[in-house]
Amino acid sequence: MAACTLDAPNARQLADFYESLLGWPRRSDAPDWVELAPSDGGAGLSFQTEPLFSPPRWPSAASEQQMMTHLDIEVDDLTSAVERAVALGATEADFQPQDDVRVLFDPVGHPFCLFVRTEGGT
Q1: Are 71 and 24 in contact (CB under 8 A)?
Q2: Rounded to whole angstroms, how far apart are CA atoms 114 and 61?
Q3: Which pTM was predicted?
Q4: Which of 53, 99, 104, 105 has the CA that lies 20 to 30 A from 14?
C-alpha cells in the first residue's frame, strides 16, 4: 500500500495538522493533493480536497455519514499525546470506549485513535 487518503474541504490545511502530529515530511504538495510519508519508508497518508466533504459520525448514527476508516496512532504517553493533539487542533470525542485508547477528531472531523500498547492488548 502506498497511502491511505483522507478527503477534506482543504487538503493542505488538513495535511498541516497531520504533518505536525506525526512529524512526517511532505512527499508531494499541490493545491488539492498532499502526500505525507514516514522518513523510514512505508505507507504514507494523503489528503485530497473534496468540496462536498461531510465529516463522518462517530459513534455511528443511521442517518449520518458513517465512519469508513480511522487511523490508530501508537504513542508512548497517552495523556501528553492527547494534550499535544488538542493543541494542534484535534478535539476529544465524548465517548471513550477503552482506558488505554483515546478517540479524537481531527480539525475536519475524521476520528482517529491514540493508544498505548499494552501486554497482550492493543
Answers
A1: no
A2: 23
A3: 0.88
A4: 99
Assigned C-alpha cell, 109: 472531523
As a whole number of Å, the end-to-end CA separation of the chain is: 22
**Bridge partners, 111 (sequence order):** 105
For residue 37, which amino acid is it? Answer: A
Query: H or E stretch including 111?
Result: strand 111-115
Residues 82-113: tens digit of each pLDDT: 999 999 999 999 999 888 899 999 999 999 99
Cα 45-49-52 angle, rounded to 5 deg:
125
Rounded to whole angstroms, the Cα distance separating 116 from 119 reads 10
What torsion, rounded to 10 degrees, do the Cα atoms 83, 84, 89, 91 define?
Answer: -30
Q: Which residue bears the cell 485508547? A: 101
- 28: which 3 cell numbers? 508531494
Q: What is the CA radius of gyration of the chain?
A: 14
User: CA 15 to CA 96: how far, in whole Å?
Assistant: 25
Q: How far apart are CA 70 and CA 110, in angstroms?
A: 7
